[in-house]
Amino acid sequence: MSEDFLGQIFVTLGEIIGSTGSRIEKTLTGVPGKKCGTLILSAEELSNCRDIATMQLCANKLDKKDFFGKSDPFLVFYRSNEDGTFTICHKTEVVKNTLNPVWQPFTIPVRALCNGDYDRTVKVDVYDWDRDGSHDFIGEFTTSYRELSRGQSQFNVYEVLNPKKRGKKKKYINSGTVTLLSFKVESDFTFLDYIKGGTQLNFTVAIDFTASNGNPSQPTSLHYMNPYQMNAYAMALKAVGEIIQDYDSDKLFPALGFGAKLPPDGKVSHEFPLNADPENPNCNGIDGVLEGYYQSLRRVQLYGPTNFAPVINQVARCAAPVTDGSQYFVLLIITDGVISDMVQTKEAIVNASILPMSIIIVGVGPAEFDAMEELDGDEVRISSRGRIAERDIVQFVPFRDYVDRSGNQVLSMARLAKDVLAEIPDQLLSYMKSRDIKPRPAPPSYMSASQQSFHTRI
C-alpha cells in the first residue's frame, strides 16, 4: 500500500497555546506547485493536572506506644508507582498525647496523590512520633483517590492494621481506625488558563554594553561578531526570545542597551534603544532585536558602569498601570559582570515585586556572579531598606553552564531556554493569586461542521 505525501507544517506548542482559543490554522506546504490545504490544530491541558484536593482525617482508639503517655500520632501518605514502589507525597502534623487525634485539614495536588489515575493505590502509614526520630509504626491502610472522593461515609472508615501484630496475636483485630471527615476538590488555575484567556507576555530585552566585555572587533570579546557563529549574547537572546515571542501577539519587543557612550556627544546611557529610535524602541520579532543589537555594536562605544536599576525601573513604569491581569512583563537582562548599582537594583526589584513583572538575568563570560545569585530570591527573599520583596521575581542563570561541550549550539540554546523560563509560569500565577485575578474565559474555537468532524477524527 503506497502512501501519498500531502504536505507538512512546522509549529511549536507555544504557538498553538498562544493563539486565540488555543487553536491555530496553518497552510500545508511541501508539494511544489500544488495547494496542499490547511491543517487546524488545537491544544488542551489535561484537566486532572490542575485539581487540588483538601481533606481532613481523624483516628479512633489507636495503639498506645508511649510508656508514660498515650501516642503522638501522625500520618504519612504514599503514592504508588507503576513499578510497585511507593513515593511519599504528604505528612500530616503530629497530634500530641492522644489515641483519638483529629488532624488539621490539608491540601494536596491530585497529581501528587495519584498522578491522575483515580484508582491507583494510595497507602497511608500511621506513626507515633518520637523525639529521636525513631518513630514507632502503629499500622497502615490503603485507599484510592476515587474512594476518598466519596467523602465522609462508611466507605471511608479504615482499619489500621499492623502486619507484625496480626501475625503474633490470634485475637488481634486492628490498631485503631482512621476516618475521613471531609474531602473536596477544586480546580486550580494554571499558567495556560491565563494565556488562553488573553493574558499577553510583554518581552523586553536589556543588553550589557560595558567595556569589560572587550572590544567587539576582537575574537576575545564576548560581543565579537563572528560571521560564522553567534556570540553568547546573541545565543542567549535567541534561545529565550524565540520561545517567549509565541506568547506575545504583536511580536514587537522593546530592546535596550546599557553602559555605553552614545553618538554624537558621547554621553553614557543606561537605557538606550538598540534601534536608535527613542520614540519607539520596539523591534520587530527576535530577528529585529538581533539586528538592533548588531547595529548598536557598530554605533556605540562600550563604557560603563554596569547599572541595572534604570532598565528595571523603565519596565516597571510600563507594568505599573496594568493591574487587571491582561498583560505580564518579562525583562531579559544579559550581562557579563559585577553590578555597580547593587543598592538601587535591590530597591528596584523590591518595588517591582508588587507588579505583573519578572526579571531573567543571563550571565555570560567567566566572571564570578555572586551578586546575581543574591538577586535570585530562591534561597533568601531579596530585601531593600527593611522591605522584603513581595514575590520572588528574579531568575538568574550563568550561560557557561549551558554551553554544550560538543559545540552543538541548538542543544545549548534549548537547555538554556528550558531553565531560564521554568519559573515564569509560577511567577505569573503568584502575581495573579496575590491580586485575586482570575483568568478570562477562553474564546470559543469556531469551526464549520466539516472541520469539527475532521478535528474529532484526529
Automatic annotation (TrEMBL):
Superkingdom as given in the UniProt entry: Eukaryota
Pfam families associated with the record: C2, Copine
GO CC terms of this entry: plasma membrane
Positions with biased composition (Polar residues): 447-458
Organism listed in the record: Chiloscyllium punctatum (Brownbanded bambooshark)
GO MF annotation, one: calcium-dependent phospholipid binding
Family: Belongs to the copine family.
Identification of the protein by name: C2 domain-containing protein
